[in-house]
Amino acid sequence: MKILIADDSPPDQALLSMIVKELGHEIIVVSNGAEAVTAVENQQPDLVLMDILMPIEDGLSATARIRKIELDYWLPIILLSALDQPQNIIKGLDAGADDYLTRPIHPKIIQAKIRAMARIKTLQAGYNQAIEQQNQHLSHLQHENHLHDQLRRAMDEAAIVVETDAEGSITYANDKFSEISGYSKEELAGKNHRILHSGMHSRDFFHDLWHTISNGNIWHGDICNKSKSGRLFWVRTTIIPFLDTETGKPISYKAIRFDITERKNLETKLQLEKERAEITLASIADGIIKVDRVGQVEFMNRVAEEMTGWPMEEGYKNHIKDIFIATISAESNNTENYLTDHVTQQHRVLEPGTLLLSRQNNQYHIEGSISPIFEQEEFVGCIFVFQNTTDKNRLKTEVEWQAWHDALTSLPNRTLLKDRFNIAIANANRTDTMVAICLLDLDDFKAINDQFGHSTGDQILVEIAERLSAVIRDDDTAARLGGDEFVLLLNGFNSSEEIDYAVQRIYKALSLPITLDGHTFKISQSIGISAYPTDNVDPDTLLRHADQAMYQAKRLGRNRFSYFDQVSEQLSHHRLQEINRIRQAIFNNEMVLYYQPKVNMRTGIIIGAEALIRWHHPEKGLLNPIDFLPQIESTDVEIVLGNWVIEHALTELQQWRGQGKNWSISVNIAGHHFTQTDFTEKLKQALARHPEIPSNYLELEILETTALDDIAYVSDLICECQALGVKFSLDDFGTGYSSLSYLKQLPANWLKIDQSFVRDMLDNRGDMALVEGIISLSHVFQRQVIAEGVETAEHGVLLMRLGCQYAQGYGIARPMPAEKIIAWSESYQPEEAWSIWSGSEWELSDLPLLVAQHDHVRWIQKILNGFDTGMVNISDNEVINHYECRLGNWYYGHGKQHYGHLESFKSLEEMHIDIHQLGHDVVTLLKSGRAEEAKKLANDLLSLKNKMLANLHELQKQVNFSGEQALNKQQQANS
Question: pLDDT tens digits for 70-90?
């Protein structure tokens, strides 16, 4: 036992400890009542020896508090005290003590008391166990009774049940029996079972039945009965005799039946259609041959005739081995044993790779099976069913080839390269030679793609692949990893000089110009080399070292090759240190999420926020993603950080919902992380840890380039995650490779227009065309679209007019810590220019007005900036000719045609002319060095600019209001 000693006297503690230890018990020693209570709660002793007079808390108080603790066992407490008055003893026992010993106490008495308490605990444990066993037995009986009742009710509900006496007179029938027979329970009571005889069974049938059950045996079988209306019905029946315990003779029978009428009808129908089956067999696409028990042909359908070359009339009664000449390979012609094994009473499947040789020596790849035929349980023959898989086998071969080769260049891909790698390393070890691993990257290849298109780029890659294949030896390997990266696996070298010579030959072959569609391209390349066994590491590391050497070649000026050396390794080691530091930062909680709100510009409603990672670096302060994410690209730390972001974003969602904010959160997921095989399962687990968060409030943002290597795989991954309820967004859409084709295949919910397009769309017509195209594509493919990089009201207005109403950017809010976003949301006011157009769609023909307005403001600002720079880079024609600026083009064109009747429009012309004149005067004064005079006019120019903007604003309101009125009138007229 474990015994707690509570006494403030060290000598008494020592004495009691010695007495207890003599009995072999474990001891716990405390010095006051409060510690005793804590010890009982935490360590659960089996007995307490408690002094009464102790500091902090006495023994009586401690005993009373212990008795209030809910323990699942009996804890005896013996009080020890020099207080020997009766009232002291009574107080102790009232407090909850089980015994009271007065000091001085003989050690043997204490030991006797401990032994007595131990015996009591043992007896109590036995008693408790007996009670528990009795309760379990009672519970088991109750459970069995409950199951029996359930079984009886279930049987009565599911089956047709009837009971008879020993002579067969009905004593009980359930509702299902009445329903199927057509007789009421009253009509059935006392009637003999013969009331249901249908005449479908012989006397012998019923004689055997009664013989079985009258001898106390259970009978099983199918019986056809006749209902009251004369309808025949079949029942699968089990009759159970109940026997007299003394005589052993049946005293009653219970019949349990199940309606199998439909099954019997189906069997009859199948029998009637047996003849039709052979007609059908003759017309199906599979070959079918029926043979008798000795293998002689009885039937062949048209397909079997064509594939074997035997017409039915000639093949009839010939042995199957003469008709169906099958072998496992083209070289083998030993078919007798092969087919003899199959003409058996067992269902068999033809071996994989079976070839069928026709009478005319045509060969077919086939798949099929051979099944035995039984009639009344007697084996009567077999049926061969086979199909021509020649085309399928050819396709399989092609698919297998594609799995090992690059689709564009037909070179081995990464998978086949790995296999060749292992062979090359083994061969080098066996022959004591060197293997060169060359990683080749084309210089400035992206510029060719950008300028001439990816189709031209692909043709160049194919040409490079063909040249590589031509220049290497038969036992070497040229592989394409993807993009413009190739790997050469060169074998059998005895020195580095031989490797140099081989690489020079490759350079010479690749340096020849490539001519395509009238354009000549001279492609240079950077090559990184690692050599085995000089670099004695595993294949993956060899390839990584070659990659590092290739980047070293690029740093040295490109169009050269470089061997891996220790300097490269040191650079790699430095990166590894950076990766480990970032890993540690994650576990040190140095990472933090900032959130940039996303809004519906038309309604002003906040729809969610994008989670953006930041690093609170202990020495460098708050770091942006660009400062540390590139170091962990394609590493396991990138995965760890991605999971961390998802988990913390879900936690933040939970807190937002607690504050009544039903916003979504979008999280950026790296392609390396997303394509991990366990990504979906990890995501599922994260969602399960936050069951109160609807999964559709989480949105994952991936770059479209994530799908470059395997679009089908990435598409399936997206579908798996969407099945969990998670939304998807294609981030930076329009900047990646094959955006249009990928959009069709990737089932993302959102497209996110890259901020580089949005930011410059007001100044760059190409960017605006791209934005307009992406928005149009989103509508065609029924995807939601959101723009990032919205920095001004003009950006938002133009986006809404193009059909994009969701946005984020500095013009709405900068990324902020989680604790600030709620307060920001309470005070957020959307741009007034956006709310003007919240309820209407704008004509695209009015887009030039917005762009022109922006241009004019920028033009005026350029003039005003001349005061700081001392020069104004604007031509005189640009300043004075108000017809030639964008605003003038719109005003005297589309604007005058549609809005010339509005007063707010008419007043614009004079202001516009005055602005150009003032601008001209300010520029003239600045150029002549009269800055002070120019400043006075500049103030007028600034005032006039603000007045014109206000007037344009009012015009937009008036145009919108007029459009709404016209729309309302049209709707009223239509109704």
Answer: 888 889 999 998 888 889 889
Q: How far apart are CA 946 and CA 950, in angstroms?
A: 6
Same domain, 314 and 445: no
- Residue 242 amino acid letter: F
Residues 348, 351, 354, 357: is their CA dihedral positive or negative? negative
Question: And the tokens for 311?
Answer: 């017409």
Instruction: Give burial (CB, 10 Å; 0-12/13-18/19+) of 54.
Output: buried
- CATH number, domain at 14? 3.40.50.2300
Q: How distant, in Å, are the alpha carbons of 31, 114, 415, 518 from that of 6?
A: 6, 15, 73, 102
Please tell me whether residues 425 and 497 are part of one structural domain. Answer: yes
**Tokens standing for residue 500:** 């140099």
- Tell which of 267, 300, 318 closes a domain: 267
Question: Within 13 A of 421's CA, how many CA atoms are on the CB side?
Answer: 22
DSSP β-bridge partners for residue 745: none
CATH classification at residue 414: 3.30.70.270
Q: Report the percentage of the chain scoring pLDDT > 90.
A: 43
Span 106-126, average pLDDT:
85
| Other beta carbons within 10 Å of 60 | 21
Does a structural domain hold residue 152? no
The answer to whether residues 368 and 387 touch, using CB atoms and an 8 Å cutoff, is yes
Most confidently modeled of 56-70, 124-138, 508-522, 795-809? 56-70
Per-residue pLDDT of 192-239, as tens digits, reads 888 899 989 999 999 999 999 999 999 999 999 999 999 999 999 999
Q: What CA–CA distance (Å, rounded) separates 887 from 850?
A: 9
Q: What is the DSSP letter of 7?
A: -
CA nearest to 375, candidates 252, 458, 290, 439 = 290
Contacts 24+ apart (CB under 8 A), 757-765: 757/789, 758/787, 758/788, 758/789, 758/790, 758/795, 758/799, 758/809, 759/789, 759/791, 759/795, 761/795, 761/798, 762/792, 762/794, 762/795, 762/798, 762/850, 762/851, 762/854, 763/854, 763/858
Give me the domain span that covers residue 761.
578-836
| 145 in a structural domain | no
| 3-class secondary structure, 898 | helix
Structure tokens at 705: 């380039």
How many structural domains comprise the chain? 6
Calculate the CA 106 to chain-centre distance.
74
Whole-angstrom distance, CA of residue 48 vs CA of residue 59: 11
Report the C-alpha gap between 753 and 770 in whole angstroms.
9
Rounded to the nearest integer, the mean pLDDT of the chain is: 85
The CA distance from 341 to 328, in Å, is 14
Domain end, chosen from 536, 564, 592, is at: 564
